[in-house]
């Protein structure tokens, strides 16, 4: 690490990121068509999601393969949503912008409305690493109990219910029903499908419910089970991977500047999770320094920029912080 001040180190990192972006844009003129690129990536990922679902419907691929491929396709839509929150695509064309926002929500129905999440995410950039960072705390950041943390990571609704009282005391302006209602109607439908299938099969395990159920109920459960394979479970895999990675890499407590908000996850331990969150742990720290940048550019410039970030004080694979509920220890090596 250099002997510069935190402000000077941050400025050096931002300068390096912007310089590398300028080089890439000069080298690849296609990058100037940012709106078109975003829309094409969205349509391709949507097509992939629908395509693997159709292959499963025709019994051409097994359920496990459909889940893996669908989760990977959905992970791209998360990156697009992240970009849309920062208005990287069609910022001056409301219809196209909102069309993309709705589409990425439909592809990831276990998340709250992207229009509401914009508020949470922009607030996250202002409060990252502190008690007020609701976005990261909703996915497990700062939780010491490993069982509770795992539950929050896997099931956002249960996590919200469990932590509502604590958040009400600690986070300014937190209101349970604002978060809960931000999922209506898409996230609401997601949880109806998920818990209907769990309850039906749970009851059936002990009572033989399926044998005495009316045809309409069995038909509904058949549809719900199909949705579980092509959309619900893939998004559980996707969101659990993302939540685990992001809650590991963001610090909670002890943070005094942007250098201390995140560390970079390059360890091979995270490779299986990165598969379902588009290499998030390795590239997201770049976003904290330059937020207004499409996700594919972060991927393209990460190799060179990460070396600069390491030289200027950003930590890599700080596993000690994870054991300490994400606390940033200024005295750690």
UniProtKB/TrEMBL annotation:
Cell division in keyword set: no
GO biological process: lipid metabolic process
Pfam families cross-referenced by the UniProt entry: FA_desaturase
Highest taxon of the lineage: Bacteria
Domain Fatty acid desaturase: residue ranges: 61-318
InterPro entries, per the entry: FA_desaturase_dom
Residues passing through the membrane, by range: 30-50, 56-77, 147-164, 176-203, 215-237
Protein name from the UniProt record: Fatty acid desaturase domain-containing protein
Organism annotation: Pseudoalteromonas nigrifaciens
Lineage of the organism: Bacteria, Pseudomonadati, Pseudomonadota, Gammaproteobacteria, Alteromonadales
């Amino acid at each position: 690490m250099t002997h510069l001040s935190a402000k000077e180190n941050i400025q050096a990192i931002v300068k390096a990121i912007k310089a590398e972006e300028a080089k890439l844009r000069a080298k690849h003129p296609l990058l100037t068509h940012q709106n078109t690129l975003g829309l094409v990536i969205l349509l391709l990922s949507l097509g992939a999601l629908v395509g693997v679902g159709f292959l499963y419907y025709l019994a051409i691929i097994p359920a496990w393969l459909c889940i893996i491929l669908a989760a990977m396709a959905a992970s791209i839509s998360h990156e697009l949503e992240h970009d849309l929150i920062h208005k990287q695509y069609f910022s001056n064309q409301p219809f196209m912008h909102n069309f993309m926002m709705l589409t990425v929500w439909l592809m990831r129905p276990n998340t709250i409305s992207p229009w509401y999440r914009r508020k949470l995410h922009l607030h996250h950039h202002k409060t990252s690493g502190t008690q007020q960072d609701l976005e990261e705390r909703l996915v497990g950041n700062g939780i010491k109990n490993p069982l509770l943390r795992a539950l929050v990571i896997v099931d956002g609704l249960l996590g919200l219910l469990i932590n509502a009282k604590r958040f009400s005391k600690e986070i300014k302006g937190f209101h349970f029903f604002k978060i809960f209602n931000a999922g209506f109607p898409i996230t609401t439908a997601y949880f109806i499908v998920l818990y209907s299938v769990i309850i039906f099969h749970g009851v059936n395990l002990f009572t033989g419910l399926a044998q005495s159920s009316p045809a309409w109920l069995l038909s509904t459960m058949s549809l719900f089970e199909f949705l579980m394979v092509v959309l619900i479970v893939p998004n559980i895999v996707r969101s659990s991977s993302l939540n685990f990675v992001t809650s590991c890499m963001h610090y909670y407590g002890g943070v005094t500047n942007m250098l201390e908000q995140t560390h970079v996850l390059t360890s091979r331990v995270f490779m299986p999770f990165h598969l379902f969150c588009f290499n998030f742990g390795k590239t997201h720290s770049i976003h904290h320094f330059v937020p207004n940048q499409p996700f594919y550019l972060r991927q393209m410039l990460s190799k060179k920029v990460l070396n600069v970030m390491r030289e200027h004080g950003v930590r890599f694979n700080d596993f000690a912080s994870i054991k300490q509920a994400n606390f940033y220890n200024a005295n750690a090596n």
